[in-house]
Amino acid sequence: MTETATVRRSRFTPEREAELYSAVLDLLREVGYDALTMDAVASRTRSSKATLYRQWGGKAELVVKALRHQKHSQSGEVDTGSLRGDFHALVTREGDCEMEQSSALMRGLAVAVHANPDLLDAFRDLIIDPETNEMERLLQRAVDRGEIRADNPATPYVLHMLIGAFAARTLIDELPPTQEFLTSYVDAVVLPALGA
Hints:
Layout: H1 3-7, H2 14-35, H3 38-45, H4 49-56, H5 59-73, H6 83-91, H7 96-115, H8 117-144, H9 158-173, H10 179-194
Helix pairs in contact: 2-3, 2-5, 2-7, 5-8, 6-10, 7-8, 9-10
């Protein structure tokens, strides 16, 4: 990601930015990443295309920042005082309806991410890296509390396990991920793998 992309100042109020991000995600659900255009975003949000490009640089950055904004508005750093509590808080940050919508978005983006290097870069910078860092902090707190061993071989794969459960639920069971499913998965798979 270019340095200019990270230092751009917003010309939008936080409310207007949230409205714009919501419209981008709605368009993404309707047409998918490949068919989403900056023209369509400008039209839907009553913005100029030039302003959108100045603010976000391009479609990839705009889409990923919209996804990040949605995740960020639903979360904050999780610290309940126990590993089980932290995992349960993580997997219940979104309601079942929001999870179903997020699952549909992620399925649609899975192909696009691998076909568009700029989208992949933005996705790594704004979604994957922050999620990985949050998970590392959560697990380190569990180590510090003595709940898990620092050298547990499952530790580097926790994020993979959680994302896999989220994605595989629809593929295997033909059902959307739910809070009940994910909390059961944490208790049956993730915590035992960590020896907690």
